[in-house]
Amino acid sequence: MSEPGSAAWRAMTEAPAESVVEALGDALTKLFGITRTDLLLVDYRLAALLPLLSGSPVTRPGDPAWRCFDHQSEVTASSVAYLPVTVRGERLGVLRCSPAPGSPDARGELAEIATLLGHELQSAAVGTDRYAMAARTQRLTLAAELQWELLPGRCRIRPSFSLAGQLEPSYAVRGDSFDWAESDDRVSLNFLLLFRRLFASLIFI
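Below the sequence we write its predicted structure tokens.
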């Protein structure tokens, strides 16, 4: 881990669960002179990137934030850096920072920090629902709330396989479900489809 990465990681781990992003923003100001930091969380339908701190949802295809999310690579546009926040293939959103550092080394360190942020968000989820709530464009039904809590991650990328799963309608799904588990050299897949209802679980391998 780079020295800036270690400093940012310490700032996030020492912060309260609900203040991880703000603590990271303060650290990035000291480390890189970045004055604006925000986390864009992808919503349950994978249709919007929702700012945690301020601003409007990003829904326009081709927007730099969506290019970063879709291609899982750094994008710089108009002095703003967009970096994927992803944990073992699970795409959580995009870290948006400005002004973008000019040095390729600094941008590489930012990419490392964005990955560390993803890990910290997953750890913080046991202590706060702030990030889960911020990733919603509307209320979940009670059934959908319970169903999403039971699901594994929506994506898993390993050298030998890639998985992605999605439930629709995301905010009102009922009994449909999917699950996977990885152990040693095997991956197990399970699907539950309630054909009598107009709901479907989609999984792409």
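The CA atoms of residues 43 and 71 lie 17 Å apart.
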